[in-house]
């Protein structure tokens, strides 16, 4: 059952390898990249808030607090940057798919309780960060044209790699 939730969580971000971000198709614009990155951050903030509402495990709660804090901070930086640059983030099929899949995943996680929730949430966070980090390094950063956007994405990637490692450490402790 845990494997099913892990795979469902990973699926939320495998959409990043779809047509909007395909190396064979058109590359995303900076406005689309900004929207995708912001959407990904919002999804993790919402997941963290869900974990804070459901979990009583101190390690899981601490991680969830970090997700809310860090992803909110990066998104605030992104909003400030696009505002200053006069760029309007552009909704696109990838960000829409991410939102829809994340909503389904939150409903799945919402049905779980106690340790089952904790394990599924952390497994989802590992898969989520692994996929987001791959999309950042393989597609979003290389296709970002604005140097400030590229720099923000690179800073985010460093932080999000740390998130993945943190979630992996927690997963080893709560099996």
Features:
175 residues; mainly alpha; Ferritin; disordered N terminus
Summarize the structure in short.
With 175 residues, the chain is mainly α. It has one domain: Up-down Bundle (Ferritin).
Walk me through the structure:
This protein is an all-alpha fold and 175 residues long. The chain has one domain (2-15, 30-173): Up-down Bundle (Ferritin). The chain has 6 helices and no strands. It has helices spanning 2-14, 30-54, 58-85, 93-110, 114-143, 147-173. Helix 3 (58-85) packs antiparallel against helix 6 (147-173). It starts with a helix and ends with a helix.
Mean pLDDT: 88
Corresponding CATH architecture: Up-down Bundle
In N-to-C order, the SSE pattern is HHHHHH
What kind of sheet is the major sheet?
none
- Count of strand segments: 0
Helix content: over 70%
CATH topology: Ferritin
CATH class: Mainly Alpha
The CATH homologous superfamily corresponds to Ferritin, core subunit, four-helix bundle
What is the gyration radius calculated from CA atoms? 16 Å
Shape: elongated
Summed up, the domain count is 1
Report, as a whole number of angstroms, the end-to-end distance: 13 Å
- Which class of secondary structure composition applies to the elements? mainly alpha
Pick out the low-confidence regions.
1-24
> What is the assembly state of the chains in this entry?
single chain
Strand content: under 5%
What is the overall number of helices?
A: 6
Structural topology:
Elements: H1 2-14, H2 30-54, H3 58-85, H4 93-110, H5 114-143, H6 147-173
Helix pairs in contact: 1-4, 1-5, 2-3, 2-4, 2-5, 3-6, 5-6
């Amino acid at each position: 059952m845990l494997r099913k939730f892990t795979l469902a969580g990973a699926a939320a971000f495998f959409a990043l390898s779809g047509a909007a971000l395909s190396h064979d198709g058109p590359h995303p614009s900076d406005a689309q990249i900004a929207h995708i990155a912001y959407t990904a951050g919002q999804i993790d903030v919402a997941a963290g808030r869900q974990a804070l509402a459901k979990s009583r495990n101190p390690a899981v709660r601490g991680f969830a607090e970090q997700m809310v804090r860090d992803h909110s901070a990066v998104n605030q930086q992104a909003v400030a940057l696009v505002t200053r640059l006069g760029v309007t983030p552009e909704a696109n099929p990838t960000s829409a798919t991410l939102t829809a899949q994340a909503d389904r995943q939150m409903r799945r996680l919402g049905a779980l309780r106690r340790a089952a929730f904790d394990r599924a949430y952390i497994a989802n966070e590992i898969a989520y960060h692994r996929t987001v980090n791959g999309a950042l390094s393989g597609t979003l950063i290389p296709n970002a044209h604005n140097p400030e956007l590229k720099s923000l994405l690179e800073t985010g990637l460093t932080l999000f790699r740390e998130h993945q490692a943190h979630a992996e450490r927690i997963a080893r402790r709560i099996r």
